[in-house]
Specification:
The chain has 339 residues and is an alpha/beta fold. The chain is 52% helix and 14% strand. It binds adenine and zinc ion.
């Protein structure tokens, strides 16, 4: 296959995205527009100046600028516009389903009501399904640099919205904030019928991935890269068929890998891990879903079969029903057979 034929094939392949922070899809152009609309001052004079600031050495470098950017999101319409802009990009990349993260504490801590963000996001998700045919689910993430008490207060605020939430997750600064810190609130969420995911092994050690499995009882691991340092842990993830939501361009931008050609994605597949490809914070890391597939395929030499496996994993690892998963996997197979 030529490069163009390959990228056309990957673009048309039905795919789900399982690891994408909606606040991380805020493009500088929209950031400026919302800042003007809401009278929020930005410490940047131009879109180019913002992009030039996206030069990170680690996760915390990124998080500092990401939380600052989210400060332009004030009204329900802002959150709806943000979500719709992302779904348009996803649809253009051949994405047909997404399970998106959002960080309510980032907004409630600066005076934006809990209901404002969730209403706006759900409106955007609803419109995306109607106008683009992209289905989606919403996952509320607790910020792990904040306290367990704050996470419990957030879960309380979420109770009227349980029917609209697929699950809860753990994000933000990983090192120093192990999954154990949130074991009780994650259990409370599970008792409410929510799915549970956690970022683990992005920067944190394999011990954090063990905790995510044993103490938090996660349904998926977000990232999980550092699990590969521990053979027994890797085997456990394989044996239990735990989905890893891997984010190659994020790993590159946050210096988890020195270059994309040494990214472990191909190795993960070879080991039998249920890896998926995702964009994490696409406005900050230089690429949406398709770019993550193509850049990684190019760098580590993914075969057409491996790409198809990644697309299937994205549906089998989703929180769709078993019947929906079977239907989506059949769509991937039909596309692969016909193209
Ligand atoms: N919040 C947004 N992106 C994140 C990431 N990659 N890791 C942890 N928290 C995040
Ligand atoms: Zn993430």
């Amino acid at each position: 296959m030529t490069d163009t034929a390959f990228s056309t094939f990957v673009r048309g392949l039905p795919k789900a995205e399982l690891h994408m922070h909606i606040e991380g899809s805020l493009e500088p152009e929209l950031m400026f527009e919302l800042a003007a609309r809401n009278g929020v001052a930005l410490p940047f004079k131009s879109v180019d100046e913002i992009r030039a600031a996206y030069d990170f050495s680690n996760l915390q470098d990124f998080l500092d600028i990401y939380y600052q950017g989210a400060g332009v999101l004030i009204t329900e319409a802002d959150f709806k516009d943000l979500a719709l802009a992302y779904f348009k990009r996803l649809a253009a990349d051949g994405g047909t389903h997404a399970e998106i993260f959002y960080d309510p504490q980032t907004h409630t801590d600066r005076g934006v009501a809990f209901d404002t963000a969730i209403k706006g996001l759900l409106a955007g998700m609803d419109e995306a399904e109607k106008t683009l045919g992209v289905t989606s689910k919403l996952i509320l993430c607790f910020l792990r640099h904040l306290s367990e008490e704050s996470a419990f207060a957030t879960l309380e605020q979420a109770k009227p919205w349980l029917g609209s939430l697929a699950g809860v997750g753990l994000d933000s600064s990983e090192v120093g904030h192990p999954p154990a810190k949130f074991a009780r609130v994650m259990q409370a969420a599970r008792d409410l019928g929510l799915k549970v995911v956690a970022h683990a092994g992005e920067e944190g050690p394999p011990a954090y991935v063990w905790e995510a499995l044993d103490l938090v009882k996660v349904d998926r691991i977000d990232h999980g890269n550092r699990a590969l340092e521990d053979e027994a842990l890797t085997q456990r993830l394989v044996d239990e068929g735990i989905t890893l939501t891997v984010c190659p361009l994020s790993n590159l931008k946050l210096c988890g890998v020195p270059s994309l050609d040494v990214h472990p994605l191909k190795k993960m597949l070879a080991l039998g891990l249920k890896a998926t490809v995702n964009s994490d914070d696409p406005a900050y890391f230089g690429g949406y879903l398709l770019e993550n597939y193509l850049a990684t395929a190019d760098a580590v030499g993914l075969t057409r079969d491996e790409i198809v496996t990644l697309a299937k994993n994205s549906f089998t690892g989703s929180f769709l029903s078993d019947a929906e998963k079977a239907e989506r996997v059949a769509q991937v197979e039909a596309y692969a057979a016909a193209n």
